[in-house]
């Protein structure tokens, strides 16, 4: 499946997984930052809920103290203060309900604690009525207000537990611990307010007071452990104030009296002093809450900035990754596309071998381009050499064809002349026979020797002339055959040149095939051309070898003909000598009849020898005619082979001409 996909698609698929992974993890990081921001915002809302809950508890603590004083004073004290305080508590209830309605998501997290506090709140109206009617004991009133305060402080504790931010969690725990300290101070205010109003401790109130002081100490240790240094320092500074000192002095004075009673302190004095201390505690509590809110706001801003930066970085990385991916894909597919286009142009187009790839790159494509350009240069050189060789082969084949035609024409002329010489030889043979018969008759007609001597002299003179003609023709035939041998040597040299050219062409084609094989799939087109060139070179080699073999045969046969001609010339010269001697004999016959018989015998002998020589000459001439005919046929075959070689050279020139050099 993958092999059918383009490299561009493969690269995009290769880059797809990292890009998707980057987008996944970037998106996950953004979602985590967004979730952290939402958590901090939610924590900020919860802290706001905790602050409003603390404000409500603060007012309920006052109502608890006033209610205890009102009950123990039998309704004679704190009536107006209690009514006013209830109004403040109701206002805090409304503000808390409005905040819960405005932040339903935050309220959902502490819904269980809020529901428990709401159940306690439902009893508040009934408790208030009982306090007004003095139908409830101070202990029961104290227990109810303590329970409702605890239920709302549980909301503060739930806020601390729900925070996922460690620093905010520590601050929330410190805030809860400080609220518990203040709650215990509120319980202290209510308890001692009731004790002072009754002017005596009961066992229960006495034990409760020390339990309250012990709880204050425990929660204060928790505050010091988890609270910030600034909050602890603020508390330590406030603890040195007059309100703290006065409240502690009044408490210590009451505790010093113990169970004896008679405290000499009015409830109003105690309530005012402890309320001043608790109010300062409330200021510290509000400062702690404000610090937590500021801390949450700062962390929300930091989380918001982190979210924005995460989104910006993720988008930037995604865009940069996409652009880089496109650039990488383009840097790979671009050179490949140019390489493919160039190969297509060479294989199917104009075969432009002057084009080159950009080899200035420093990567693998630059190296591929460099070696591809070297390959094209080698092919260019090979094709150029093949072009030159093709022209040389065409020229040589044309010359070979022309030479073969000349050889054929010359051979035909030699054949004609050989036929003439053969005819003359036959006539000379017949003449020799006549001479022999005449010589025989001459011995019988010695008396007519003188007359016949004149006739014999004429005949001898004609014989000498004929022999000279024969000698001249034979010499001319020998020269023609020698010229034919020289032509054959020239043809042999040309054939050797053609063989060298064919071998060089075959070698060049083999080199081209090797270079194409090295190029692999990209050099397949060059391999086909190289194979065609090599096939043409091999055909040229075979043709030239056949021509060479024919030329060698012609040279051998021409050499034999030259030898035969030379022998014929020798024999003709012998015949001429014999004819001259016959002439001399006839002259001697004229000088003396006594020598006639001897001369006739000599003439007869010479005539017989001449007959044999002329017969041999005739035979040689016929052989020369056959050889010349074979030479003519070989020349025609050479001309045909040269024509075929010329056609092959034109085909090769056409193949090579497909390339632009």
TrEMBL record:
The chain crosses the membrane at residues 305-329. It comes from the Bacteria. Residues 330-384 form the HAMP domain. SUPFAM superfamilies: Methyl-accepting chemotaxis protein (MCP) signaling domain. It comes from Trichlorobacter lovleyi (strain ATCC BAA-1151 / DSM 17278 / SZ) (Geobacter lovleyi). GO terms for cellular component: membrane. Residues 389-625 form the Methyl-accepting transducer domain. Residues 51-299 form the NIT domain. Pfam families: HAMP, MCPsignal, NIT. GO terms for biological process: chemotaxis; signal transduction. Keywords: Coiled coil, Membrane, Transducer, Transmembrane, Transmembrane helix. Residues 110-137 form a coiled coil. This is Methyl-accepting chemotaxis sensory transducer. It is found in: Membrane. Belongs to the methyl-accepting chemotaxis (MCP) protein family. The lineage of its organism: Bacteria, Pseudomonadati, Thermodesulfobacteriota, Desulfuromonadia, Geobacterales.
